[in-house]
Protein 1
Amino acid sequence: LLFPVSNLCGKCRPRDTDLLQPSLNFLYWSLHQTTPCSQQRAVAVLLSNVPLLELLQKVLECTWLRSAPSEPAYLSPEDALLCSGWLLVASLLLYQHRYNTEVHRTLSLDLTEVLNAVIFRKKKPILLLVSIMQFLRAVLRQNFSSSLLVIIGQNTAQDAMQPRPSSPEDAALHPLATQQVFSLVVSLQNVLVHKDLLLSQAVVACLETLVEYLYVKNQDVALHVASQPWHRFLLFTLLSGGQKSFLQPEVLRLMTLFLRYQSSNIISQKEISQILQEAAEANLAELPEATSRALHLFLCQV
């Protein structure tokens, strides 16, 4: 089925949402719900389909061409198609790297546009934000070096008119700029305050991957990001309201992140003791799977 469905996608235009939406979802799940052997073949089929890759290029570019909907929670057919496109490309990036599959047509994306889609959310639906963050995680994990993707780091026309010497930090973090990193971190923190479960999981995962990337590129910048005082206020905000327990997956994962990068101004011995006390008193067999995994990672880090 991969051959006819992928060929059908290649003959469509981005506005053919009724046909493309289920088709891209089928391709996405074909990659994830199969054996490793079949998965490698599926990746090869999709990455050899040039019309399909050209279509995905056009679909992703629609993200910054579309106007913001009046209702941010409303997922229109166009937004749903964008979600499917970003998730499929993120998966193709992951599996192309894993299997070193030959690519017959590369995708080109402006990193500034991708980051701005998250930083300046403009009432984007939650699922679309999550999908773009999944893509961002995929490119960060590959250090922006993929045979499938060509990343354009800056708006070159604007830079040509106003040339500025790049700082040593910018050079080390290329193609990211230091200011983009800080803007992205602040935006992710602001999104996390909304306390939406799906969005919180995506934001924490994106923060984890971003700090890992920064630590490889420039340890000083990574430690500076991880020790921002605003993180402590963020933790207090997450713990306010109805559920004040530290045993929330996103709280545990944030605590683990701060422990890993020794942010003693964010998490103190007192908080660590509170988490250990709550874990000792909890019925571990009844904890949700996400909480169990997060607690396991936290204890290993301690």
Note: Confidence is low (pLDDT under 50) at residues 155-163.
Protein 2
Amino acid sequence: AICDVFTQYLEVLSDVLLDDIFAQLYWCVQQDNEQLARSGTNCLENVVILNGEKFTLEIWDKTCNCTLDIFKTTIPHALLTWRPISGETAPSTPSPVRENQLDTISQKSVDIHDSIQPRSADNRQQAPLASVSTVNEEISKIKPTAKLPEQKLFAALLIKCVVQLELIQTIDNTVFFPATSRKEDAENLAAAQRDAVDFDVRVDTQDQGMYRFLTSQQLFKLLDCLLESHRFAKAFNSNNEQRTALWKAGFKGKSKPNLLKQETSSLACGLRILFRMYTDESRASAWEEVQQRLLNVCSEALSYFLTLTSESHREAWT
């Protein structure tokens, strides 16, 4: 409601209220409460999409910095560093499960973001009562084997994972407008499958999203967020030992956790920004840096893809 009032009276309120609104949204995202955290990112997105055309250069800088701060403070670093308390063995599994069965279960992998309730069509977060599957339900899956301090830590980490994915979506929706990038992806994929490399994918990208209001430096800043999120997810997904340890400690249900959606959607959005800049005549001055970044990101992505052995992992990338 505050964001709606802000939007309605932008000219009067932006000098007075904008910093406070960003600070408030940032605060929401820091809380160990899924509803607050997701509302924070969704409200940020709505404020930017509804008002971005009227933002000054300085306000855009503040917006990018707010996004950057949220990204940096919600990367769930502890997923990579968590260790069971020394001297403790991993909780024993309920007796019906035989050792070899356990092994086949552990080979399966479940995306931490799966079964978390998606956004509604108009991009506003559903009201708490309406939420079908929320992090809280996921948290209830943590409980049987995890000890109390771990339950709290795992619950907080789950929320950070959700915020990361929401933020990737927020950047994509803000820069390109929600419908455009999905349509573009579908057409590009269809062209690639026909092997029509020269096929001109025509999507009406004119006047969609906030892309044209952002400077190249601001876009690079958002890109850095996306790539940092991507590399974190990749490091986690590659760390089989750590994922097994978390799974045995009761983190996130029956299978080993992964961050596949985060790994792939952050990269997709980053590439979308880079390729858009690379074909934009008005950004010719940034082309040298864009080209360098494109070559680095693409070669890193392709060499990583070639090392993937899991069918489902490759599938997600395809």
Note: The two ends are 40 Å apart (CA to CA).
Protein 3
Amino acid sequence: MLWTANTIMRKFSSSSVYYQNKLKLALIGQSLFGQEVYTNLRKQGHKVVGVFTVPDKEGKADPLALVAEKDGTPVFKFPRWRLKGKPIPEVVEAYKAVGAELNVMPFCSQFIPMNVIDFPKNGSIIYHPSILPRHRGASAINWTLIEGDKKAGFSIFWADDGLDTGPILLQKECPVEANDTVDTLYNRFLYPEGVKAMVEAVQLIADGKAPKIPQPEEGASYEGIQKKSNAKVNMAQPAEAIHNWIRGHDKVPGAWVLIDGK
């Protein structure tokens, strides 16, 4: 093949642009989902300048912390970011020192202060396992099934000071099958496609192509957190409602009912 100066210049230029369209990221989150997002973002050439995750539990590090520590990525395990409703200064300063251009929050159980959310020049993006504005809050997958929704999905949105109310960056959906549980829905679609979408969202931001679509208020819902204490089955309902209630709690927190005192 004959290589000309123009050919070489074109290849050099395109690869330079590709290289430049990468971001310095702070990953705030936990779990295997957070670990997969972290690993795939690094594979795409983005630089994770800090991982902020939960403290070790019974001497065991979170999966995200494990892989980040192995890579030599700075890992911070703050038990909390706020005290008495106010940001903890030394925690915020440690966060700011890593110099992130974007916060990526794939699965975050902690309350992150707004001065951290808004600090990077590109703000913060969050993964949420519902088609927002429907099922805002912590038990979104549960309520998708409990309510008998015909479709499920996830949203990646720009964080603001509300509860899952920020502008939408992207959304994807799938049909809900008759015998889906929280686990099957998560493992079949919400987890694998969610990881891919988080990587896609970061690249859209890096390329300056990420939309910010305001959430409509029509169809918005927040049903609250499901736990063992409120997972009791009401047997005075149609069979389909009982079916949806049970699968919407399977396997966490688990639905239950008393029959003959047992």
Note: The two ends are 79 Å apart (CA to CA).
Protein 4
Amino acid sequence: PEMPTDTEERESSGTNSGDYGEEYRPLLPSRETSLRILTTALSPLDYRKWRRKPWYWRVFKAFKVPVELVLLLTVPVVDPDKDDLNWKRPLNCLHVLTSPLLCVLTLKSGTYGLYQIQGVFPVWGLIMLVGSVLALIIFITTSNEEPPKYHCVFAFLGFLASAMWINAAATELVNILRTLGIIFQLSNTVLGLTLLAWGNSIGDTFSDLTMARHGYPRMAFSACFGGIIFNILVGVGLGCLLQMTSSQLVVKLEPDSLLVWILAGALGLSLVFSFVSVPAQCFQLGKAYGVCLILYYLAFLCVALLTEFRVIRLSA
């Protein structure tokens, strides 16, 4: 037989590497049952990928599987890049029941879930009843192959469920920080300046660094200031509004404390510094600007902590 040339070998090897998934695709099309679709959609493990990965990846994956399974059960995902928009009829019908139940049981640490209507019927029972009826109607009026016209509603439901998970995680994180503060006798201000601030910003830091390294420095720079503005305006505004509607009409920041003036002054000086220095450099920022910002943050953190621990204080 004739031996293939180098060009033919490269073409054949490229085709095989690109069409790896074809080996696992059935030759004849077949309709999967609803039970099969549900079990496949709820499986967070890819067995082919599991066999190829090293042992430490498998150990880390074993810890992630319970969390991923809970998220798959409660958060619907609409993917516009797929032909079927990630429509899984049995799983999406289950989401109609689990996502509202998640919202009720996680809002204010499950306080609303314990309420009873007329002192007899619990709220979570009403949510399960209404969700079961809606899930049954959707299951009867839809098919496994084609998503319904109202499939976009599941995207909003997924956003709401994701927000509830983030809210629950943030609540538990604050409780852990308060516990650490009680154990080590640290005030809420110190915890907010250090652990909570770092945990809240470290994700943005890595994402901004990644965008800058990939050639999008203006996007990273805008995200830095956009995140600060969002936290100040929406975070403080919404937090004060919720506090006013729940118990107190006034949120007091203790203006007599020196630390409050240090926080406000440091924030104002940093914004004024950027407001003056960035146009002065013709909006072409170098390493000196970044070094100055880092040194300014370290100086601010030292002064704030020394003030909180009464090393720096106003004389009587």
Note: The longest helix spans residues 153-184.
